[in-house]
Design goal:
Blueprint (H helix, E strand, L loop, with lengths): L13 E5 L4 H12 L3 E6 L2 H13 L4 E5 L5 H15 L4 E4 L14 H22 L9 E5 L12 H21 L5 E7 L6 H6 L3 H8 L10 H12 L10 E4 L27
Parallel strand pairs: 1-2, 1-4, 2-3, 4-5, 5-6, 6-7
Helix pairs in contact: 1-8, 3-4, 4-5
């Protein structure tokens, strides 16, 4: 493991990661475990959750799996209770369960729209609300996973834009309400992340992936561990005065289209003698 953080940066801390059985959230959970945290992974699919937890234990980390649908408040409550029985209070809670598909509004059913809002927004509320009683106060941190669509709308992503905008405002409201108790609440807004189900759907071919990368200032997708590194920082004392912020980790993709086609040709050459 290569990391800019000390291996024991989160030693003695406990983490609960909703949606932590794959993709970005598993990358975050893995990074938290690699820096000393005991981790509970929440997933809807019991087999998948157990496999993910077993993969962490195989790496020598302390991890367990619990199963619940984040849309079911009672089930989330029960899952948090099981984890708390084993690990005690939580220092870190990550809410990252999400759903997505590509569809125009006129090609989307009301049920399809509602499903994404229920998973992304209602699910985040359920995890945060049910977790509060188990948070180690003061000192705990809640990290909600957002998306760039919350701020910059995208065609065929109206459902995600609406849901994640709600997640951002929920994050800010919780930061205001829970700050006096010493609980920090923050958002992480990823850009495109390599080897995730979402990007496989949005850019299913190498050509589509390259076309998207060409619009990103850093010209590449993120690795899940880079989102994990941000989570480690935000969970540490180094970020102890941060709350209510939505932190972009997107290679600059929210800044706009940085492809060569969007820049006048004369600005793509360099001439030391050029005069303005």
């Amino acid at each position: 493991m290569k990391s800019v953080f000390r291996a024991d940066a989160l030693a003695g801390k406990t983490a609960f990661v909703a949606g932590g059985t794959s993709g970005i959230n598993l990358g975050i959970a893995t990074r938290l475990a690699q820096h000393g945290a005991k981790v509970t992974l929440l997933g809807r699919n019991e087999l998948k959750a157990n496999d993910a937890a077993q993969s962490l234990r195989a790496g020598g980390f302390d991890a367990m799996a619990v199963c619940a649908d984040v849309r079911d408040y009672g089930a989330v409550e029960d899952a948090l209770g099981k984890a708390a029985q084993r690990y005690g209070q939580f220092d870190i809670v990550v809410s990252g369960a999400a759903g997505n598909f590509v569809a125009p509004v006129l090609g989307m059913s009301a049920n399809g729209f509602r499903a994404v809002v229920d998973i992304d927004l209602i699910g985040t509320f359920n995890v945060c609300r049910a977790a509060f009683v188990h948070l180690r106060r003061p000192g705990a941190v809640v990290l909600n996973i957002s998306a760039g669509q919350a701020v910059n709308a995208r065609p065929y992503q109206a459902h995600v834009s609406a849901a994640k905008a709600g997640v951002n405002m929920l994050t800010k409201a919780l930061a205001m309400e829970w700050g006096p108790a010493g609980v920090r609440v923050l958002g992480i807004s990823p850009g495109p992340v390599k080897d995730t189900e979402g990007m496989r759907r949005l850019t299913p071919t190498a050509e589509a992936e390259k076309a998207l990368c060409d619009t990103i200032p850093l010209r590449r997708y993120a690795q899940a561990r880079e989102l994990g590194d941000l989570a480690v920082f935000l969970s540490s004392d180094a970020a102890g005065y941060m709350t209510g912020a939505i932190v972009d980790c997107d290679g600059g993709s929210q800044l706009g289209d940085a492809s060569a086609d969007s820049i006048p040709a004369e600005f793509l050459t360099h001439d030391d003698d050029a005069k303005t």
